[in-house]
Amino acid sequence: MSQEVIFKNMVDSIVNLDEEKALELANKAIKDGMNLMDVVERGYAAGIREVGELWEEGEFFLPELMRGAEIMQKCLDLIIPHLKKGSEDISKGKVVIATIEGDIHSIGKTIVGTMLRAYGFEVHDLGADVPAEKIVDVAVEINADIIGVSALLTTTMFGQKKIIEILKERNLLDRFKVILGGAPVTGSWVTECNADGFAENAIDAVKLVKSLLNK
Ligand code: B12
């Protein structure tokens, strides 16, 4: 079976809310030594985005959206320990990552954090619905290099800007690079926030962090 067909089956398993199939495909991908980041991005993440579109079109209702996210999370729980296997022992830099206050979307942020870990960065994942002040406090406490902030809602993305404002108030702007992510984030939003960059997926997030730290 070609990779494209396998990815398509993964997308379908999420869209059809077929947990058994989704987990079976994830287990097989691990066993067959597939590139698991591709599996996450091109398979399961593509599937949950399609679920989101169906929900927007009124084809799916909230319980179906939640069920899709639950299946996606179970697949991630299965895959993540195997992604970590590739991680290196020497830290290339410290990253604090969180989803901003008021926003419970955690899947994309978790994927980015996991991917950064797999590439040797020390990642402190604070979870979802985290106040901007707390994110900055932890970054100071652990002497982070990068602050990564995720927002999936147009209403919560203003919290990303708040991070920069807090850093400015505390004279800490030069101490950290701030990167943003989440479906509503665009280049112009990054400019407006005065942030250091954004990435549309976990692979680009690793490239971005590497280039900002020049490592
Ligand atoms: C799954 C999902 C949920 C799940 C979340 C489960 C969880 N634990 O995360 C549940 C069902 C709980 C949910 C709830 C809600 N949701 Co919702 N949800 C989605 C959905 C379908 C997919 C999000 C997702 O996981 N995508 C897959 C991941 C892999 O992609 P990603 O998040 O974009 O992350 C990637 C990149 O953005 C980037 N990235 C992400 N974070 C970061 C951070 C950094 C630092 C970097 C560099 C990069 C980066 O890399 C990631 C990996 O590729 C989206 C639709 C969409 N198109 O995004 C709607 C969506 C985000 N939800 C939406 C809404 C409205 C809601 C609710 C308000 C619904 C309701 N009425 O209750 C609530 C919100 C509650 C709250 N306060 O947060 C809307 C938002 C609309 C808007 N304009 O604001 C969307 C866009 C759906 C839609 N089309 O209308 N949701």
Describe the structure.
- This protein is an alpha/beta fold.
- It has two domains: 82 residues, Methionine synthase domain (Methyltransferase, Methionine Synthase (B12-binding Domains), Chain A, domain 1, Orthogonal Bundle); 120 residues, Cobalamin-binding domain (Rossmann fold, 3-Layer(aba) Sandwich).
- The chain is built from nine helices and five strands.
- The longest helix is centred in the middle third of the chain and has 23 residues.
- It starts with a helix and ends with a helix.
- The structure holds cobalamin.
Keywords:
9 helices, Methyltransferase, Methionine Synthase (B12-binding Domains), Chain A, domain 1, alpha/beta, 215 residues, single chain, Rossmann fold, 10% strand, five-stranded parallel sheet
Annotate the secondary structure layout.
Layout: H1 3-15, H2 19-31, H3 36-56, H4 62-84, E1 94-99, H5 107-118, E2 122-125, H6 132-142, E3 146-150, H7 158-169, E4 177-181, H8 187-193, E5 197-198, H9 202-213
Parallel strand pairs: 1-2, 1-3, 3-4, 4-5
Helix pairs in contact: 1-2, 1-3, 2-4, 3-4, 4-5, 5-9, 6-7
Cobalamin is lined by residues 41, 45, 48-49, 51-52, 56, 62, 65-66, 69, 97, 102-109, 111-112, 148-150, 152-154, 179-184, 198-202, 205.
Structural class call reads: alpha/beta
Apparent shape: globular
CATH evolutionary superfamily of the largest domain: Cobalamin-binding domain
Average pLDDT reading: 92
Major β-sheet strand ordering:
2-1-3-4-5
Number of helices: 9
When the domains are counted, the total is 2
Give the SSE string.
HHHHEHEHEHEHEH
| Number of distinct beta strands | 5
Bound molecules: cobalamin
Q: Which strand-content bin applies to the residues?
A: 5-15%
Compute the separation of the termini in Å.
Answer: 37 Å
> CATH class of the largest domain, please?
Alpha Beta
CATH architecture of the largest domain, please? 3-Layer(aba) Sandwich
Major sheet characteristics: 5 strands, parallel
Oligomeric assembly: single chain
Q: Rg, please?
A: 17 Å
The low-confidence runs, each spanning 5 or more residues with pLDDT under 50, are: none
